[in-house]
Amino acid sequence: MRRVTRIALAGTATASLALALSACGGTSTSSSSADSKGGHKGLALAYDVGGKGDQSFNDAAYEGLKKAKGEFKYDTADLEPTDGETDADKTQRLVSLAKQGYNPVIGIGYSYGPAVKAAAAKLPNTTFGIVDDSTVVAKNVADLVFSEQEASYLAGVTAAKATKTNTVGFIGGVDVPLIHKFEAGFEQGVKDTKPGVKVLSQYLTQTAQEGGFSSPDKGKTAAEGQIEKKADVVYAAAGLSGQGVIEAASAAKVLAIGVDSDQYMQAALAKYKDAILTSATKDVSKAVFNLAKSVEDGKPESGIVRGDLKSGEVGLADSNPAFKSNTAIQDAVKAAQEKIISGAIKVKTS
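^ that's the sequence the OP posted. Answer follows.
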């Protein structure tokens, strides 16, 4: 089982999916038919809750799909999740894509764990990928994971340097181990930088089915509550729900820290961009593209494929000039980054 270090931004592309989609739920769009021009089918994505348009996690994956489509000139597909779907529904979606000839097929999000395991066992000649889960062990599966806690630590350093009230907030979408990594790194970064700063932490829901990753209204309400308690920098690891956090921060004229994608650069969030100080990014796009490339090259990745601060696949976005030009923040972030990479700082995951 080959172990490599890598992260990716995700992307979507399109394909005509015929009968499978009505059976599995979800949507797809059709591209010019590569098959009719002598092409072939390539990368397919199955989105996590929130779907395409979350300006965060799923959209990062979509970027990887778009890059693969452009580079390899093949048909791609991307499918949306459906409300209340089961593991069996997810498995059917993945199997359907693979049987139509798509390779690799990637489940975006840890919730695809059981489905990827089942689909990979049924179709050993197709390469499957899963983002944010390292538990699926099979020769034809790549677990695309990241050290999110490291980028979150830098977000904590930033928040501690930026706060004027000495109170900052963390909002997690769902109370699960993956999001605990974000919280743990953030809180550690805050405390190591400025011990007197209070960190308010809150999770929107206990399960993804309750909408923790897909409800901007829940994110907005939670952020408003933290802002009322004097939080003037709020970091959200909540997928689509994070849009509500950013909206609340903008309305209150405080700061937000985005997640996964560079949210300062997202067109749908443009009217709130001045409130987005930075984003703790993970290159889901690159991970998705690299898996597609490995299949195209005839050497499919498998096993755990991890992106971290050392590999440059997690970090902080510097698109906001107010962040990039703040010498105190930049010096503190750089010093912390060097210590994490050298091992002088061990970042907690829970």
